[in-house]
Specification:
The chain is an alpha+beta fold. The chain is about 20% helix and about 25% strand. The longest helix is centred in the first third of the chain and has 11 residues. The radius of gyration is 16 Å and the shape is globular.
């Protein structure tokens, strides 16, 4: 997916200039321009801020089309939708199962390479998040609480609380997570 082109298309569709979107999102218009030209990749938190300013959820931004006459039930690994391409966001990969806006839950297969994180800016959005660490370890900040979780451990919190995920280990961390409603 061409994130820059899609962001530009949505921004124009909403009648927003780069300057106006930048002001709403707390970024510079130069940053918006670089993102739209795919010369830089925003952090997950920055992309969330941009989409909140539109307003649009990450699930809507990365939505894929499902045939409404025959809802899709099974997915191959190749059919997951990358909502945080590995080329950007410090190598973080968030792969979404199906079209989250067509369902009441958003399921993600998350990969965090060593030292990767969702960005220094904490995220927040409506809903609840839960996940289980499958491999490695992850430092999770939720509000003023910080905890390192290892394989087999999990989390569950109100996503309106500012939060961040950061792999402080030396191995890749894998998490299977869910967000409901799909507002991420």
């Amino acid at each position: 997916m061409d994130i820059g082109k899609k962001l530009q298309s949505i921004r124009k569709e909403k009648g927003l200039s780069q300057r106006e979107l930048a002001a709403r999102a707390g970024l510079t218009n130069g940053t918006i321009s670089l993102i739209e030209k795919n010369k830089t990749s925003p952090s997950v938190a920055s992309l969330k801020s941009l989409l909140d300013a539109i307003p649009m959820s990450i699930a809507e931004f990365f939505a894929t089309i499902e045939d409404s006459d025959a809802p899709k039930i099974f997915y191959t690994a190749e059919e997951f939708v990358e909502v945080a391409p590995q080329a950007g966001f410090g190598g973080v990969s968030l792969r979404q199962l199906g079209n989250a806006i067509s369902h009441s839950v958003q399921l993600l297969d998350e990969f965090y390479p060593a030292q990767a994180d969702t960005g220094s800016e904490l995220m927040s959005h409506d809903g609840e998040e839960a996940g289980i660490v499958i491999h490695g370890e992850i430092e999770i900040t939720v509000g003023d609480q910080i905890r390192v979780l290892k394989a087999g451990e999990g989390y569950l919190f109100d996503s309106r609380q500012p939060h961040r995920f950061r792999n402080i280990g030396t191995d890749v961390c894998r998490i299977i997570s869910a967000c409901t409603p799909p507002t991420f």
